[in-house]
Every structure is written in structure tokens, then in C-alpha cells.
Amino acid sequence: MANPNRNNSASKGWLWLMGILILLAVLGAAASLYYQYKHHISGGQTKAKQEIEEVKSVKKTKEAYDVIVVGTDPEGVAAAVSAARNGLTTLLVDGRNREILGGLMTLGWINSIDMNYAPNKNLLGKDDVFNKGFFSEWYAKIEGDSFDVNTAANAFYDLVKNESKIDVLLKTKKIDPLLSQDKKAVQGATITLEDGSTQVVKAASVIDATQDGDLAAAAGVPFTIGHEDIGDPNSKMAVTLAFRLKNVTPEVWNLMATRLNGDNNPDTGVNDVSVFGYGEMSKYPPLNKERAKMRGLNMGRENDNTVLINALQIFGVDTFDPKAVQEAFDIGKKELPNILSYMQKNFPEFASLELDGSAPELYVRETRHMQGEYRLSIVDVCTNNDQWDRIGFGSYPVDIQRISPTDNGNVVCKPKQYAIPFRSLVPQKVDGLLVVGRAASYDTLPHGSARVMPTGMAEGEAAGAAAMFAKQEKMTFRQLSASKEVIAKLQEQLNKQGMEIHPITLKPQPFMEHKAYEGLKSALMLGLASGAYDNNFHLDDPANPKRMVNLVSGAKKMKPDAFKGDVSQAIAKMENADKIPLSLEQATYTITQALGLTATSKEAQAKLIENKLLTDASLKLIADNQKLTNGDVYLLIKDLKVGLTGKP
Predict the structure, then answer these.
(1) C-alpha closest to that of 348 among 453, 256, 476
(2) What is the pLDDT of residue 1?
(3) What span, in angstroms and rounded, lies between the C-alpha atoms of 320 and 212?
(4) Segment 270-296 mean pLDDT
(5) Residues 530, 533, 537, 542: is their CA dihedral positive or negative?
(6) Helix, strand, or coil here: 551?
(7) 400-427 core/surface letters (b: 16 or more CB in 10 A; e: else)
(8) Burial class (CB in 10 A: 0-12, 13-18, 19+), 474
(9) Is 28 left (phi over 0), alpha (psi -120 to 50) or beta?
């Protein structure tokens, strides 16, 4: 017998299927419109430029707050908003002559973001980002991975002014830590106002979000400077003076896209708001050859046919000395007209462009590195290391910019995802204080990745929430950093705030399974190994005597006093030292020469074993004593480091 409901059921099924298809089409169209909105794909036209909203600064602060956040860079804004949303009365105060929020982004004119991308795509098919939370909330208000500085400044202020528990105080002359009697805890700040008067403001917690850890340093927190931790205390990455060019019309933008998107070079490209490329600019002959150098152009689009460019590097600047800072500005401004002329001579698309000013603040990449409860290492970053107290993630390549005009810079590795531990925000010796941003507790090499602002904003958000838990649990930050129970509560709260703080589950990198991995780790910590963007450390490539001399010379930083010899003597009588294989005999002889140990080449191996500077375990991993590889050499360096310092 026929089913009387059959035709009706089939019709309902078709209607249901059609409804699903229509819904998918609507969602697809919405996604497309959102994508076009976010990237303003409209024939190359950009949005109208916003007027900067005036930031309302309090004339007189309260006598006490739950939290004082020092510094109005993105990390500080994130910290203040997070603290306020967690119910804490918050003072956001800045000691520079600033009238807007955003610091390096809005006054340093670094308007292209070094993004921390996750390996997965989001619902719109675009690259997803790590951390999210405050960063994603702010990012949704701007133009894209480059932005108009007015838009960014207003977006920061919009997030701050909507929090009733935040007071903003700008343009102060000085901010000093208010220390406990024993000078072991920060209890607030003494603020010198614009008119010269002072106010003492007490707080249970203080968050240092200054670019250089200024308040923490004044409180007695220990730091290293620049490359001090790898034996080069006088070296720091270059500073940059960003500059602006006008007349960058949609036609000019399209010409740049035609050049850079069609060259099959993965290191160059143009989207609707960003340009990266023109590596030929590194050949620009600077007026001041000792102090200035150009790199490839990083351009961020503004909403008035202008671009901001991060490319002019200036060296040897003591950024703690106002005279040296002014000198850096002067050097940069003298170069800029010649730089534009060089661009116009070599690239026809720049013919109509004009110089339209330089940034009010320098982009300072590196100064202080705090000594915290945990110091992030280069091994942590390159191996995608998780941390039990993770409060954010990084994934940006370890980009070590030039330290001098003759240096080419270096990319040590490209991580997929590594964790920032809460302990890296907690300084040694001083309580009541957290440090977020580029001055947090990182070694100089991992700082090359962790210094980027999205990571710092995640740290700021975590610090603001941590201040609430310190108050609630009646703990110091140091006690909190040792409590797995409270850290778990902090992580849960950050997830509720829209962050994504979950354990990392990644496969080990191939180099981590290599027999010479333990040696590579020592070489990384000493700054002797680089894997570039593909994480290829060439462990199985043949070594040579000259490279051995260079590596041992670089390893001197592990304990300079122990290197009493002249390492160059190891190859003084050798021809083609950079082309012939390296034998174990030659390698061990090079080490004894560097240390000033009396031994012939045939005696060198035994001499090192006798002095506990070489182990049988490493020797057994060497496959061919006549043809050592780079990995073999790193194992020898590791044994040397353990023997001299007690640490791998």
C-alpha cells in the first residue's frame, strides 16, 4: 500500500535542503562582505581619515588605586583595560610628552603589525591569530595588518574611555616608584606633574608597561642590557626613524602590487594596507655610512594617500641620553631626502611621491631585558616550548635586526607556537610589580620574537587580570607565580576574557630528534647557530677548520677568562681552511689553542678529556673522525661549555 505521507515528506526534505543552501549562501555573502569591509577592497580606495579624539586626562589623581599602569603603549592600554574589567580602580599614567594613546604604534609610526599567526585558518578563510582577547578586540576597530595611526589611537582610547574605573594621566614629567621601607616592594608611585608639582599615589599593584622597563629599573629590578647575555654588552639592535610619504594614490599602490606580487618572491608582497619588499633599498649609499643603513621597505597605508615606512636604521644610539636621541633624529632627517631620491631613481612608481615628515618618537627595538622569575630562552622559542603558567603565545620569527651597518641581521628560527610564562612578567628582588612588553624577562635572542606588540598586549591583559587575583588571594605576584592553583584560575579568567590559553600539542621539530640536538641547544644559547625561516640548522653539513675557528671564537663569551690563547693559530699555517674537511684532531686542537692549553694536535683530544672538557658520550656520536659535521662541532662546543661553566 502506498504511503500517503511520502510526497509530503519528500517536499519537506527538499524545503529543508533548500533552506540550508540559502543559509549557507547568506553566510558566505556575509563573510565576503565582512572580508571586504576589513580589507577595504574597493578599487584600491581607503576609508576616510579620522580626526583624533582628545584624550581626557585627569587634573588630580586619587590618593590610591588598586593598580597603577605606567606607560600608554599598546601593552599598557591592554593592562589597564583588563584590570578595570576585573573590577580594579586603575590609573593609566605616562611619563612622556604624549597626547594620544598607542605609543610606538601611533607616535613611533610603526603602523604595520608583526602578527602572531596560528597555523589554522579562521571562519573567513583568513590566517587566525594567537591570544585574541584585547588584541582582537582592538584589531577589529582598525584597517588590517597595517593601519592608519589616527584610527589606532582612537581605537585605543575608545576601549579606555568606556571603562569607568580607569583614570588617564598624560604628560607627566617623571614617575618614580614608591618603595617600601626595606625597598623590596613597590607600593605606588610619586608622580611629577606637568606643572612641576608632585603627587604620591599608592597602589597594591603596579604594572610597568614602559618600553624600556623604566619604573622597574628605578625600583632596583635587575636587568641585562642589549646583547649582554651573549657576551656583547655594547651591542643592541638598531633604532629606526619611521617616515611618511604622500601622493601614494591607488594607482601607485597598484603599481607596487604589480611589481611585488608578480615576482614569485615569498618575502615580498602587497595587500590592501601593507607593502613589504624592495630589498634593493639595502644598497642605498647613506650620507652617514657609520651610523645609518636602509633595509627593505615595510609600508603601512594611511587613509589619506600617505604611507608610513619602517626601513631607516640608525646605529650606536644611547636611547637613555636625550642628546643621543636628538642626534639620531638629526641623522635620520638628513638622510630622508636622499632616500626618497634614491627610491625615485630606482623605482618608477615612486616618481610622484613626496616626503611628508618623520615620526615624533624613535622606534627603539632593544634596551633592557629584565631578570625575572623565569627567563625565556632561545631554546624555548625554537622548540615551541609550552609552559605550565602560560599567559600568551608567540610565533613571530626570531628576527635579530642589524647591530651595525656591516651586519646583515639574522633570523635564528621560525617557531610555530611557544608559550610566554607568567613568571617572565615577575621581576626578581622586587614585589608588587609586573613588567610587560619588550623589557620583560627574555634573553636577547628570544626577545627577537617575543618583543612584538601582539605578544606584549597579551602580557598586558594577563597582568591586569593577575592584579585582581593578587588582591583576591592576598598574594604577592611572586607567590602567585609559584601557585599552580591560582595560575589555573588566572588562565581560566583569561579564557573568559576571550583569550585562548590552552596547552600546546605540537610534534617535535625535526632537528629536535637529531643526535646532535643537545649540542645544537648549547650553540643556540651562545648565539652560534641559525636555522632561518625553514629551521634548517644544517647539522649534517660538513664543517671546515675556518668555521671551527669562528665558532670557538664566538664561544669565548661562555667564560672569557678561560680563553687565554689565540684561536687563529690553529689554522695559521693551513691553506684553504674554509674548503677542506674538519677532522676531530683539528677540532680539538682548535679548542686547546683557544684555551691556551699546551698540546700538539695529536695530544689535544686527550688534553680536553683530562680537563673534563670533552666526553666519551659526544665522541661516540661522531660518525667520521676525519669529516666532522656542524652537528659534531656543536657537541664539542656543548662539552666545552659544560666543562667551563657547569651548564649546557
Answers:
(1) 256
(2) 38
(3) 9
(4) 97
(5) negative
(6) helix
(7) bbbbebebeebbbbbbebbbbbbbbbbb
(8) exposed
(9) alpha
Distance CA(107)–CA(55), nearest Å, equals: 14
Task: Collapse the DSSP code of 146 into the 3-class scheme (helix H, G, I; strand E, B; otherwise coil) and give the result.
Answer: strand
pLDDT in tens, 332-351: 999 999 999 999 999 999 99
Given a cut of 70, whether residue 7 has pLDDT beyond it is no
CA 137/CA 310 separation, integer angstroms: 25
pLDDT for 318 equals 97
Kindly report the pTM of this predicted structure.
Answer: 0.91
As a whole number of angstroms, the distance between CA 183 and CA 195 comes to 28
What does the alpha-carbon distance between residue 393 and residue 91 come to, in Å, rounded to a whole number? 27
CA separation for the pair 299, 314 (Å, rounded): 18
615-644 per-position pLDDT tens digit? 999 999 999 999 999 999 999 999 999 999
Asked whether the predicted pLDDT for residue 6 surpasses 60, the reply is: no
Radius of gyration of the chain (CA): 28
Strand partners, 394: 418
Mean residue pLDDT across the chain: 92
Return the C-alpha cell found at 462: 594577563
- Which secondary structure element, helix H or strand E, spans residue 312, and what is its range? strand 306-314
Nearest in space to 630 (alpha carbons), one of 510, 516, 509: 516
Per DSSP, the residues of 38-71 read HHT-STT--PPPPPPPPP---SS--SEEEEEEE-
- Pairwise CA distance, residues 387 & 459, whole Å: 14
Terminus-to-terminus CA distance in the chain, angstroms?
84
- 105/147 Cα distance (integer angstroms): 9
Query: Do the beta carbons of residue 343 and residue 353 sit within 8 Å?
Result: yes
| DSSP symbols for 553-595 | HHHGGG-GGG--S-GGGGGTT-SSTTTSPPPHHHHHHHHHHHH
Gap between the Cα atoms of 447 and 163, Å rounded:
32
Residues 552-571 have a mean pLDDT of 96
User: CB 367: neighbour CB atoms within 10 A?
Assistant: 21
Report the pLDDT value the prediction gives residue 505, as an integer from 0 to 100.
87
